[in-house]
Design goal:
147 residues
């Protein structure tokens, strides 16, 4: 019987050696929802919203996406004469309308028959820069000839 107790004692001693010991320097993982993570997520969302807003503004500002028009009314030309004022030439049937467009107001400036866009013989084919430089040279020549 003594041998049985001794065997049991010998078998019990190694079990304490192999037992798992708690780690004294254990730190739990950081929480998933923290202030840094929330700020990073908010900054990313803000950046995406800014990019979407900028892209929308650019598309609207420079009219990159063509607008659909019907065959009845066509915009022939438009030019800006102020920050919000424009002059627009519309083609309605065989008539061109020159319109003044301002915020809250559209007024007809002139109405004329449809003309062809081909350059006529009366109008010289020189560019605006050539015409300006010739005019400037003429005015300079007149000034020096008078003195």
């Amino acid at each position: 019987m003594l041998i049985r107790y001794l065997t049991l004692l010998i078998l019990a001693i190694p079990s304490r050696i192999y037992a798992e010991v708690s780690q004294p320097g254990y730190t739990p993982p950081p929480p998933v929802i923290s202030i840094e993570n929330m700020l990073q997520m908010a900054a990313g969302l803000l950046l995406v919203l800014i990019v979407i807003g900028a892209a929308t503004w650019l598309l609207k500002r420079f009219a990159i996406i063509p607008t659909t028009t019907s065959n009845a009314i066509k915009i022939i030309s438009t030019t800006s004469i102020g920050q919000r004022e424009r002059i627009v030439i519309l083609e309605v049937g065989d008539t061109w309308l020159v319109l003044g467009v301002a915020p809250g107001r559209v007024s007809t400036l002139h109405s004329m028959e449809k003309i062809s866009m081909k350059p006529s013989d009366d109008i010289s084919n020189k560019s605006g820069n050539d015409k300006f430089s010739e005019h400037l040279n003429q005015q300079i020549g007149k000034k020096y000839n008078q003195s």
